[in-house]
Amino acid sequence: MIHYDQIVVGGGFGGMTTLHKLREKGFNVHGFERGSDFGGVWHHNRYPGARVDSETPVYQLWLKEVLSDFIFTQRFPDWKELQKYFKYAGEKLKLYDYFTMNTEVTASHWNDKESLWYVSTQSNLNGVESKFTCNHLILCIGFAAKKTYPDLEGRGTFQGTSFHTADWPWDGIDVKGKKVAVIGTGASGVQVIQSISKEVGELVVFQRTPNLVLPMQSQEADISRQKERKEAYHQIFNDSIPSSFSGFEFEPDTRSGKDCTPEEIKEKFDDCWKNGGFRFWLGNFQDIMVDKSTNRAAWDYWKEKSSVRVKDPRKRKILVPDEPPHYIFTKRPCLETTYFESYNRENVDIVDINTNPITEVTENGLITKDGSCYEFDIIIYATGFDAITGGFYQMDLKGKNGITISEAWENGTYTYLGMSISQFPNLYFLYGPQGPTAFCNGPTCALIQGVWISELIDFTTKHGFKYNTPTIEAQNSWRKYIQDNANQTLLPYTRSWYMGANRDGNKPRECLLYVRGVGNYFKDINKESNMGYPNFVFV
Ligand code: N01
């Protein structure tokens, strides 16, 4: 059986960064990626209109070796440009030699006697199963590793074509003139809808919750500025982490909306709206997700801006209701360009499945509670993911004494620093539960967590320890810290994937994210390492 010092699972930003950092330290590290290439979610999410909501240049690997050549042509690159970028970065960093593609990690079991992880894999090409051992296991599986479908009667009986947005057929699908259903209006749904509405014959959108979408505004990348700043990127990025809230090049306004005059509020909102991207959310007043009056002012502004864009009063009421469906930003907004205008087309309709749920999938289409039968050629499930923790549950992951992750998290999610779990020695993860994750530019998280993990591994190895594991006490207080901070925000009021509450089932409702911002997170984790890891046991 082949042995590695470390195995990295996943070849997106997290896996590429971490493997690169471990290799720099001279370890014998190997990675497995279930897709056929690097990219993680950007390998799998290739539906029409898929493009990232985070801006370049910060949305790229923060590794100096790959910061000077690649020029992004789009401010918010689409999946094609991102796939090109990942290929470039994989080649430049010589990562292809260290990753096995098309390979799913099917099980990872800790062996107490040998202090090793036994990792089982299966090839997606020929089904061949293999086993490996390693000292340390790093899960870089992202927060969207497990797709979810609605639990609908007859879902398998549909005779047309149906698929999840994260499984868009590789050779594309011709929607021209077809009758198409989209179920779900999260980021994936919004992008698909605005993209295919012009091509399809008929489109019916089944919406549970209106998406409080934000304007992308300019899509042009500032290429000359990119070129000018290339050499300084590494410094710019590294200098900005310790004070940044979300890893972007803009910061929340340090004022509280509740202390501002209506004129000041309007001026701020206008500015955020005009400049686009996530500014209306993450560059807005610092109390936007905390104070109900500031939050309400943002909703009122959003509603005024959005409602004028939908002509049909019935459709408008579904898309832009009179009252907020939830506190704005307590669900993840997404960026749009022509989302509302799509509904002004005669071939596009919308059904509010909150009041009139889908009751059945038939051979020909869908039936809703009021008895309406809809016939389709294609049903697109834009129904999202068992986010953040789903990827852990779907792996056969066993720690000390054979404990499963479901057993370890039976009473809620417990981690230390959003990177390790106490009964799972030498196991680490990035961009997952109880880290900044959804409130952090992905590559920023990949860098700060990847570096931190590689240093802990280095420390463990250099001191001749077989393994490290955080104490249960440290884990309990980290969980409390996460929940206490989240409880000061408006997040717990809303059923969202941030709260593990976007799907049916018995996942505990709890905030799964670190809400104090990247800068504070950076300080918290570095406090632990600078003090010599006092909350870890080393054996
Ligand atoms: O998934 P979602 P997504 N019956 O969970 C609905 C990132 N991302 O793939 O809101 C009927 O957001 C559900 O309704 P509700 C980004 O972080 C980024 O769109 O739960 N409907 C919702 O409308 C994003 O947030 C980018 O009431 C059901 C939709 O399906 C995250 O990935 C692009 C249902 C799911 O929306 C996930 O986005 C794409 C059911 N049983 C994704 N279950 C960019 O950067 C769920 N829904 C651009």
Task: List its traits.
539 residues, alpha/beta, eight-stranded mixed β-sheet, five-stranded parallel β-sheet, globular, binds 3-acetylpyridine adenine dinucleotide, NADP binding, flavoprotein
Question: Helical residue percent?
Answer: 25-40%
General shape: globular
- Distinct compounds present: 3-acetylpyridine adenine dinucleotide
**Mean pLDDT figure:** 96
Cα-to-Cα separation, first versus last residue: 25 Å
Number of helices: 16
Low-confidence stretches: none
Secondary-structure-based class equals alpha/beta
Tell me what portion of residues adopts beta-strand conformation. 15-25%
Q: How would a crystallographer describe the biggest sheet? A: 8 strands, mixed
Radius of gyration: 23 Å
Tally of strands: 20
Description:
It holds the Pfam family FMO-like. Belongs to the FAD-binding monooxygenase family. This protein is an alpha/beta fold. Helices cover 29% and strands 17% of the residues. The protein contains 16 helices and 20 strands. It has helices at 13-24, 41-44, 79-92, 187-196, 223-229, 233-240, 262-275, 279-282, 292-307, 313-319, 339-342, 390-393, 405-408, 442-462, 472-486, 518-530; strands at residues 2-9, 29-32, 99-100, 103-111, 116-123, 129-139, 161-164, 179-183, 202-207, 214-215, 335-336, 348-352, 358-361, 365-368, 373-375, 378-381, 396-398, 427-429, 468-470, 536-538. The strands form five sheets. Strands 1, 2, 3, 4, 5, 6, 17 and 18 form an eight-stranded mixed β-sheet that branches. The mean pLDDT is 96. The site of 3-acetylpyridine adenine dinucleotide has 26 residues, from helix 4.
